[in-house]
Amino acid sequence: MSQDSRREIVERFLRRCVKYADESIRRKRKRGDSEEEISKWVAYRDFTEHAIEEVASGDLDSWLEDGPVSYEPET
User: Fold this and answer.
1) How far apart are CA 68 and CA 58, in angstroms?
2) Which SS3 state, helix, strand or coil, does residue 36 take?
């Protein structure tokens, strides 16, 4: 599988996670759940959106391969 294909699969998965988080936030607000609980979902959604940007840009390409992983953004 090509690097682009792997990147697309991960990005699509993460976008679905963001949609799920948005729906969870909506449901929790409708139910009147605590802002503390809702804020956890907002933080998760925001972090996931950031991860999407990193995956889409190729910064995390080393994470999509077997072998050593770089924790420094690629330039």
Assistant:
1) 16
2) helix
Q: What is the pLDDT of residues 22-59, one digit of tens each?
A: 999 999 999 999 999 999 999 999 999 999 999 999 98
Percent helix, strand and coil across the chain, each to the nearest 5: 75, 0, 25
Token code pair at residue 13: 């998965």
Q: How far apart are CA 75 and CA 61, in angstroms?
A: 11
Give DSSP secondary structure letters for 1-27.
Answer: --HHHHHHHHHHHHHHHHHHHHHHHHH
User: Looking at residue 62, what DSSP letter applies?
Assistant: G
